[in-house]
Amino acid sequence: MRRRIFFPEALFFLTCLWHLILYGMVSSIPGESEMHYLERTKWWREGRFGIFIHWGPVSLVGTEIGWSRGSSVPVEVYDNLYKKFNPTKFNPQIWAKLFKQAGAKYVVIVTKHMDGFSMFPSEFTDYDSASTPSGRDFIGELVKAIRDEGLRVMFYYCLSDWYHPHYLPRPYYIQDPPGHQRNFNIYQEFVKNQIKELCERYHPDGIWFDNAGDLLPLEEWRPNELFQIIHSINPEAIINNRAILPGDYDTPEQTVGEFNPYRAWESCITLGTQWSWKPNDRIKSLKKCIQLLVNCAGGDGNLLLNVGPTPEGEIEERQANRLREIGQWLSRYGESIYGTRGGPFIPGKWGASTYRGNIVYLHIFNWDDEKLEFPNIDGKVLKYSLLTGGKAKISQTKDKLVVSVPKKYQSDLATIVKLVLDRPVSEIAPRPGPELPEIAIRASNVYQNMSAFGADKAMDGDETTRWATDFGIHSAWLEIDLGKPRRINGVRIKEVSEFGERVRRFAIEYKKDDKSEWKPILMGTTIGDDYLRKFIPITARYWRLNILEATEGPTIWEFELLSPNY
C-alpha cells in the first residue's frame, strides 16, 4: 500500500500540537494523565503483533460469521447450528503454543458476534457454549492456555445482536411474533451483565467492542457505563474505539492505517478472505503478511491478524504454517518490530522504518535498482549493518541519505538496514521516504468496472485479491508501465484456477519505450495456479500479459515480473 503524507518538519509539529490542543489526552478513562495512559497501554503498543480469533457454530457451514445469517444461511438453520457444534479436536494448548510460535504478543478472542451466540457459559442466555453438545467453556479454556504461554488476552464483544429479541433495530429479515414489543433497555442490561460477567470471570486485559449503533441513535447506547463497568473490575484494561467513544486506540479494518505517531491504532486484517473459517480459502502469502506487519509498525500501529478455526476445533495446517513462518521471521528480525516506534520516514511504496532509541531500522520492499535516496535526517549515521545479511553502503550528505545494497543481498520479504545515529530518533521529525518511479497498471477490461477487481489487484502482492474480467470476455490484456526501463528475466502468474483454468493461449510481451512495438518474449497455453517461467533478460519499460484466448472471462490472482536475481 502506498501512502503519501508529506509534511514539512515545522508543519508536522504544528499539526501534532494542534491535535493535542484540540483533543487533549484521549483515552477510555476520563481525566487520565498521559503518563498513566502510556503505562497502561505499554504492553500493547510494544507488542505490535496480535492474533484475532473468529470461531463459532458458523464454522460448520463455512460462511461468514454473523453476516451470513439470513442471507446465505437461513435464520432457522443458522440459529440451530450450535446444536451440532461439537469441536472434538479443540485443544487450546495447541492453539496457544502456535500463537506463541507466531511471535504474537496478545490474542483477541470473539466472545459474541452479531449472531448473538456466546462462546462461553453465560448466566444471561441459553444460546451459549454450555448448550452445545460439547458443553465446554471455550473462552475459559483459551484464556488459561494463552496466559500459560505468557501472552495477553483481550475479548471481542459485538454490541449488535441480531438474535436477541430486544435488540434494536430489528434485523430486516426478522418478523417478530404478534404483540412482541422490543425494549432496548432490556437489551442494554443484557450487554452490561455479559460484560460484567466476562470481566469478573476471566479478567481480560482489554475489550474489543464492535458494531455499535446500526440505525439506533448513538446516545442511547450509553457506552460510558460499559467503560465504567470494565474499569471498575480491571482498572488497567484497554478498550478500542468501536463503542462510540474514542477509547484508547483506533481500529482500521482490512487496510493498513495511516502513519500516526500521536494516536495509537491497530489494523485488523484477515489471513484469508473472510473472518470465520472458509473451506479452501485463499490465504495471504508470507511476503504479504510480513509487509503488512512492517507497514503497521512503520506507521506506528499494530497488526491484529485473524485466523478462523475449523468446525472440528483445529487451526488448519495452511494457516498454522503461515503463522509459524511469521514467527520464524520475527525470531530473526523481531528487534526491528517489537518495542519500536514508527519513523522517522513515513511508509510508502519503498517500505517502512521503525526506531528505538538512537537506532533506525529501514525495511525496504522495493528498490530503484540497487539504491534508494532518502531525505537526510537531523542526525549523523555512526555505523550501519544489513540485518538480513550481506553488505550495504551508506553515504550521507547535507541533503541525502543514500542506501545501496547489491541485488544479491536484497531480501524478497524485506531488506532490513540498521542505522545507529548520534542522537535519539524521537528528536527527529518524521519525513517522507524515497520516491520510486510510479508503476502504472491498466487492463482492457475489468469486471463491471469495479475497483475491487481492478488491474492493480493482480500486482498488489496479495493472493487473496484478483483482477477479473466480465463474463463473455474471451481475450484481454494486463499492461504494466514500470516508469523506466528495467531488466526482467521471468514471470510468475497465478490464475484463479478454482473457477476453472480459463486461459487457453497467452503471450508475455514487452516494449522498450513509447515508440516501440509490442514484441513477444514468451508464448503459452494454459496458466493454472502457479505458472513460473524464466527467459533471457530483457530491459524494457512496458510489459504485458496478453490473454489471446479464454473459455470465459479470465481472472488472475497475481502477475509478477521477475528480476535476474530472483
Keywords:
566 residues, alpha/beta, 7-stranded parallel sheet, disordered N terminus
Beta-strand share of residues: 25-35%
Low-confidence stretches: 1-24
User: Helical element count?
Assistant: 10
Helix percent reads: 10-25%
Write down the Rg: 25 Å
Strand order of the largest sheet: 5-4-3-2-1-7-6
Number of strands: 24
Compute the separation of the termini in Å: 22 Å
The pLDDT mean sits at: 93
Sheet/helix structural class:
alpha/beta
3D shape: globular
**Main sheet, how many strands, which sense, barrel?**
7 strands, parallel
Task: Kindly describe this structure.
It is a single chain. By secondary structure, the chain is an alpha/beta fold. Helices cover 20% and strands 27% of the residues. It has ten helices and 24 strands. The strands form five sheets. A seven-stranded parallel beta sheet has the order 5-4-3-2-1-7-6.
Short description:
With 566 residues, this protein is an alpha/beta fold. It is built from ten helices and 24 strands. The protein has helices at residues 9-23, 34-40, 42-47, 75-78, 92-101, 138-148, 184-202, 223-233, 286-298, 317-333; strands at 49-53, 106-112, 152-158, 206-210, 238-239, 266-270, 302-307, 341-342, 345-346, 351-356, 359-364, 371-375, 381-386, 393-396, 400-404, 415-421, 431-432, 440-443, 467-468, 476-495, 503-511, 519-524, 531-550, 555-562.
